[in-house]
């Protein structure tokens, strides 16, 4: 009986997550930032900043005076958001740059352009992600969730790490999810070719965010801080 129930639960997981999403969002939206710190002269990159958490984060940082880069796959949508933030905050230093985390060529092009354009990078916020996608692969052949949510940000962080070190004190913020508790790293099935479930693929990628953050912090000999009920792991360099 138990053996029959487990596959059924896996099939129902995406539906259950979808149905519970409004209640989960309501529960997690109660956190309020009470800091009044201003950020003039600081340079920030926010991935996936044209919608959701990324957009609100970029708006708040612009309100505090930072120079904010919206790193987005959809540049047209990003430009509309940038104008909205500029109008709302009065900060004209809100810039849009193309970044497709499902393509390592795009990631490398973004990093190359940014490093040529800016002398400093004080905050990197790895926020962008995909959730419960039908099975597909990135331009480089990785399963979409692990490719975008983890490997894309892994490469981006690696390419910008020296600039972050040079700009210290600086921060790396990796946005994960409570779903990481359901994740497992199956090295024999990393690309989901033997077995695939969209909901679990998302959970696995969010666990990878946590493990990446902890290992990077260990190598850099810095502290990881957890913020809020939605795991946001912050490394201080």
Automatic annotation (TrEMBL):
It comes from the Eukaryota. Keywords: Oxidoreductase, Signal. One of its GO terms (molecular function) is oxidoreductase activity. Pfam families: adh_short. This is Retinol dehydrogenase 11 isoform 2. Belongs to the short-chain dehydrogenases/reductases (SDR) family. Coiled coil: none annotated. Residues 1-20 form the signal peptide. The keyword Ubl conjugation does not apply. PANTHER family: PHOSPHATIDYLINOSITOL-GLYCAN BIOSYNTHESIS CLASS F PROTEIN-RELATED (PTHR43157), RETINOL DEHYDROGENASE 11 (PTHR43157:SF70). The keyword Ribosomal protein does not apply. The gene is RDH11.
């Amino acid at each position: 009986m138990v053996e029959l129930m487990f596959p059924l639960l896996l099939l129902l997981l995406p539906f259950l997550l979808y149905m519970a999403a409004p209640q989960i969002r309501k529960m997690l939206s109660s956190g309020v930032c009470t800091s009044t710190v201003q950020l003039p002269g600081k340079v920030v990159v926010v991935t996936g900043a044209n919608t959701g958490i990324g957009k609100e984060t970029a708006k708040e940082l612009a309100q505090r005076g930072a120079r904010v880069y919206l790193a987005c796959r959809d540049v047209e949508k990003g430009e509309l958001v940038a104008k909205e933030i500029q109008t709302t905050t009065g900060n004209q230093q809100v810039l849009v740059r193309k970044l497709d985390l499902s393509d390592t060529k795009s990631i490398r092009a973004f990093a190359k352009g940014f490093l040529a354009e800016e002398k400093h990078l004080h905050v990197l916020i790895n926020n962008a992600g995909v959730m419960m996608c039908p099975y597909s692969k990135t331009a480089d052949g990785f399963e979409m969730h692990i490719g975008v949510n983890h490997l894309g940000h892994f490469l981006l962080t690696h390419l910008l790490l020296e600039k972050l070190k040079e700009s210290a004190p600086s921060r790396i913020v990796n946005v994960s999810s409570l779903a990481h508790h359901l994740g497992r790293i199956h090295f024999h099935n990393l690309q989901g070719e033997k077995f695939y479930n969209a909901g679990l693929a998302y959970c696995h990628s969010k666990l990878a965010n946590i493990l990446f953050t902890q290992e990077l912090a260990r190598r850099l000999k810095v502290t990881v801080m957890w913020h809020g009920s939605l795991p946001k792991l912050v490394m201080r360099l």
